[in-house]
Batch of 2 targets.
Target 1
Amino acid sequence: MSFLYNNVPIMPGAYLVNGLSSSNNELWQLPIFGSVRNLTSMGFGNVDNFYYIMPGYKIELYRNSEYNALSQTIDNTDGTKIMYKQIVTPSPNPTGIFGDDCNSIKMFYEGVEIANKYTYTIYGQSSGTPPATTPITTLTSGSHKLLNLSLFPGAYLINSPGVGCMAIFFSITSLNTFIDQSGDREDCVLVMPGYKLILYSGNNHTGTYVAINNTEGTTIIVGLSTGVRDLSDNVITGGWTPNNILSCKLFFNGNEVIQTDIAVTQTS
Amino acid sequence: MFHQNIRVPGVYIFNDNVSGTGNGMQSAPIFCTMSDMSILGMNQSSERAVVFPKYKVIFYANTNFGGTTRTIDNKDGTKCIYENNALNGALSCAVYYGGVEIPNIFSTTGT
């Protein structure tokens, strides 16, 4: 498998899509990097209607968490193109097992399961100045390009239940400006290995913050707020208050990934 | 870069807050030219975009490359382009790498 960092896939093997063609103006997709033991804790439980799967990959869909009650398999192990498949309710006797009924997924690459690549952790919010992380390596504008940082999102903000998953490539001073997102926002996050994400309640990195440090991690952190359920399907206590952030900072190896270092803004 | 490896997209689209409903904070990758983006649930949902160096994308308002267009050309760029003007949705797109179109690589069978 290519595109590994600390032995963790940094490109998805499949995407889960919620609500295909039900209406315009929606983009409800979740990237899947490995086996997911509980989709509800990741904000996308029981909302699947569609998948697309990269060549070399196979996924098994389970009705319950912890890989209980296999419902179907989508196999693109030998594929040469990206396979897409809609999970349809069969007519005339829908049984309820097709679509909107998946709560865990096993993922395989060339027949080998990609297991134990997620760590689920509750994060609270704090005030003051976030603790700094000592840079492991020094990034320059050139090294951003060399490392292809701009090609791989370092984190994802997930809006539950099953509403969206926004890739984060760099620090953002105002989510309202960046994506015109003034209402419901994040309920949990994915932070890739090598990265640290800090969420702020105010614009321009002010206010209370939630710091999720995966700089030296060997799994993908699933950062949980009180907006999702824990792995035992219990209400989360001690997590940050969701839907309350206005800006974020992203760091790779302890260095902030500044937007202007890797992207130019265009208004065409 | 990696356009030959179809697991790495050259374009990401972002969707904003939908009519104040809170149904936002969304993104999705664009791997290739697509005559009908709705087959992947992308229903007129592109409002912002990030386009990687060496890539160009043309968004079309209608399926099968019809209607009004919006072009983001980063063929000669060395950084990503973040397009922050509302794209007002799209239903098809053409994607180029180094000036060469990346054909559709989606299939219901994987082959």
Target 2
Amino acid sequence: MPLFEYLLRLGDNGLILGHRVSEWCGHGPILEEDLALANVALDLLGQAKLWLGLAAEVEGAGRDADKLAFLRDTGEFRNALLVEQKNGDFAFTMVRQFFFDAWHYLALDALRASAEPRIAEIAAKAVKEVAYHLERSRDWMVRLGDGTDESHRRAQKAVTILWPFTGELFEADAVEQALIQSGVAADPAVLRQPWHDVVAATMDEATLTLPESQWMQRGGRTGRHTEHLGYLLAEMQFLQRAYPGATW
Amino acid sequence: MSEAATRPTVEQVWDWLRAVPDPEIPVISVVDLGIVREVRWEDDALVVAVTPTYSGCPANGVIALAIEGALLERGMPRVRLERRLSPPWTTDWMSAQGREQLRQFGIAPPPEATIPLSPLDRFARKPAPVACPRCGSADTARISAFGSTPCKAQYRCQACLEPFDHFKCI
């Protein structure tokens, strides 16, 4: 079911990145950043709940957002590989966030015009929150890249490592093609140039360099993940796996 | 007397809701916050449409409980809450009274009109000055766009040197 698959992709991006960012809670470099990281995680989890709730409704198989979040295995997750990458240091987390936020903002902005009204209304809500995420991660790119030698070195290393994970954000497969034709999905190919413009301008200001290689990783959206996702799910899903149906 | 004649008017219900505080920032009511979008009767059920502030705000659930509880306490037999996502909540819907209540509590209220969204515009513009809620000085600096709740940012007054929260514009 293409619509169900598409909603899983949107929801799983928020769920997995939200969980990753929440791992920083209590470990932020300064109090203000700890709060900011927790707030961004909270927004992403709230958005994921909306997307996965709609996915469950569309599927009509008696599942809900919680069941989709806690009772699927790695091969059933549809998030981009970028968001499941481990936190690394603060620079790595912020570069990952910036690459994602810039795509996320543009994708949600386009989805406000979706022919599926339930998608359009979630996008219109989420894009306002993500505008703040992007503003912050973009500020950090400049601060870290054009900061000390050490912060520059770490930010540049993160850019180089994470760059190959950005490609699949702009690829549309058969699942998305039909939905793009009917105006339900946003065409990721159309987002590529505006994304590149924002990223390139920011890298320039941050004195950081994008790798020249255009070789890209892919697989997240068809369930072929990096080794990191399994460990994340083991922690995130432990309680519902060990005590099925537990509530508190 | 028919049931329709004894049940309170929609205006009466709005008045009751004006006494329901936001659970996170209790100086402002859920109505002044602008999140109650509609009150209507459907047969014998009182329906209240509420829009969430932020998607993941933990207060969303507590707000729904507080509204439902307040109306049941007023003797309403059936209350149904409707989640309304669209149009999305904006701080433009906050009442003048709500803004003043925030300011008196020490939280700088959001500016009157929402700034149009565009990432590049946002990078280029300087954020509008936020007046210190304590001394009124416009000489303030943003410490972080994120604060102790999703709706707030952290600021510092350069004149009186006090840190303060700003209810950010969305």
